[in-house]
Amino acid sequence: MKKLTKKDMAEMKAKSDAFFAEVESRPGYDEVEVEIRRLNDIGNILDTIAKRSGKTQQQIAQAMKVSQPYVSNLRKTGEISVKNLMAYAEACGAKLKIAATF
Fold first, then answer.
1. Is 13 exposed, middle or buried (0-12, 13-18, 19+ CB in 10 A)?
2. How many other CB atoms are found less than 10 A from the CB of residue 45?
3. The whole model's pTM is what?
4. CATH code assigned at 30
5. CB-CB contact of 50 with 92 (8 Å)
6. Range of the structural domain that residue 16 is part of
């Protein structure tokens, strides 16, 4: 299993920040729309974390003590609680950090 390194996480954050900075600079930018896009991108983030960890959905499910179809649904819909997001990250060998900035 390949653990996500600080460099991997920094690269993911830099790509995300660049994308959202570009969106926010567009004329007619709507903050709510960007937040919705960020939420919809959670499934892609889960996929990236899993791929970088080298773990299968089954392995992640076992570590989370849930079914593989449940993990698949999380990745398809991006609908996930903070508690399960933390469990998913830990199952992949990553640490979850959440920040609110004003």
1. exposed
2. 18
3. 0.60
4. 1.10.260.40
5. yes
6. 6-91
